[in-house]
């Protein structure tokens, strides 16, 4: 029964989660699907490891910067901004600012490289292919900008001028906003593909996961089995999928709006406004994912109910016909 539930879940959810580029052919077993997903995961793990390592350093630098700012503010209150004590505190603050910016770039660059590697592992046969190439080009620009900024930060004096700290900080903030938005654009292409594939594979009455479940339900009903609970679980599953599709469509509206105003952004505030809209879109994607989780829970209960009514072989036959036979 676990195999059947897995295959139903494959038809319902999992096959859309695998980059096509890592598949030699369409998976027909859960084992093949798992192998494909592991291969894709290995492509990005090195970058993720570097990101997590540098994230810890960045967090330490952020706390250090906060402490330096507090010390400098206290010094100004006690001795005055022009005092020798405060000038020393200010130099320490600027040196810490340099380390903070450098550690932030050390964290962001592998994060962006990880996202790029993941996006590049997908292959599409429709117009998404050109969209992916556009997204990769944007991300490459972002990577170059961040690497250039990293070189400039590293070349700064340990006691940089106020103007240098301010200008580099503003450039860094804008570059990071653009990079995050561009990566969300690329991720959005994949997310759309996953959802589109999912809704396509659900099918109607005579195909996909719906077809396998409906056919099994009807056969058990014809045998005089008590299928009322099974029918309720199937209906609830379909209702959750419908809610997921609604949330997905809402996400597309937000996401497209963010994309239209994001790339022309020339200031940190403009980039942030576009990113916030994109974030709303991804929040709707998350909502859709939650509805799909609830749909899967109902699917699991429906399968257990079918087993209790002696319908395991019927379900197996229908899975082969409606899912693996597609």
List the helices and strands and how they pair.
Blueprint: H1 2-12, H2 30-79, H3 84-120, H4 128-155, H5 162-202, H6 208-222, H7 228-262, H8 268-308, H9 312-324
Helix pairs in contact: 1-8, 1-9, 2-3, 3-4, 3-5, 4-5, 5-7, 5-8, 6-7, 6-9, 7-8
Any descriptors?
326 residues; 9 helices
What does this structure look like?
- There is one protein chain.
- The two termini are 21 Å apart.
- The protein is mainly α and 326 residues long.
- The longest helix has 50 residues, at 30-79.
- The protein has nine helices and no strands.
- The chain is elongated and about 90 Å long.
- Helix 1 (2-12) packs parallel to helix 9.
- Residues 13-27 have low confidence and may be disordered.
Termini gap: 21 Å
Radius of gyration: 26 Å
- Percent of residues in helices comes to over 70%
Give unreliable regions as ranges. Answer: 13-27
Order of helices and strands: HHHHHHHHH
Structural class designation: mainly alpha
Mean pLDDT, rounded to whole units?
83
Biggest sheet details = none
Number of separate strands: 0
Q: How many DSSP H or I helices?
A: 9
Basic shape: elongated
């Amino acid at each position: 029964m676990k195999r059947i539930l897995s295959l139903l879940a494959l038809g319902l959810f999992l096959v859309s989660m695998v980059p096509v580029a890592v598949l030699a052919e369409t998976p027909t077993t859960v084992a093949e699907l798992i192998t494909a997903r592991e291969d894709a995961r290995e492509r990005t793990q090195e970058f993720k490891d570097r990101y997590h390592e540098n994230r810890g350093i960045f967090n330490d630098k952020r706390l250090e910067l906060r402490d330096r700012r507090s010390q400098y503010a206290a010094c100004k209150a006690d001795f005055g901004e022009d005092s020798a004590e405060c000038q020393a505190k200010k130099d320490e603050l600027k040196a810490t600012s340099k380390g903070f910016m450098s550690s932030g770039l050390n964290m962001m660059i592998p994060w962006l490289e990880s996202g790029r590697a993941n996006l590049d592992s997908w292959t599409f046969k429709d117009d998404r292919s050109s969209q992916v190439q556009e997204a990769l080009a944007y991300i490459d620009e972002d990577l170059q900008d961040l690497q250039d900024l990293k070189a400039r930060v590293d070349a700064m004096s340990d006691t940089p001028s106020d103007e240098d700290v301010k200008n580099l900080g503003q450039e860094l903030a804008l570059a990071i906003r653009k990079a995050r938005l561009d990566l969300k654009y690329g991720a959005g292409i994949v997310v759309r593909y996953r959802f589109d594939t999912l809704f396509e594979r659900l099918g109607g009455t005579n195909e996909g996961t719906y077809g396998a479940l409906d056919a099994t339900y009807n056969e058990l009903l014809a045998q005089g089995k008590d299928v009322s609970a099974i029918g309720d679980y199937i209906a609830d599953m379909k209702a959750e999928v419908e809610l997921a599709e609604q949330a997905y469509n809402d996400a597309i509206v937000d996401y497209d709006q963010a994309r239209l105003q994001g790339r022309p952004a020339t200031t940190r505030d403009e980039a942030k406004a576009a990113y916030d809209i994109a974030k709303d879109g991804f929040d709707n994607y998350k909502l859709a994912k939650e509805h799909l989780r609830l749909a899967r829970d109902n699917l699991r209960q429906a399968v257990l109910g079918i087993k209790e009514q002696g319908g395991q072989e019927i379900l197996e036959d229908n899975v082969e016909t409606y899912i693996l036979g597609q």
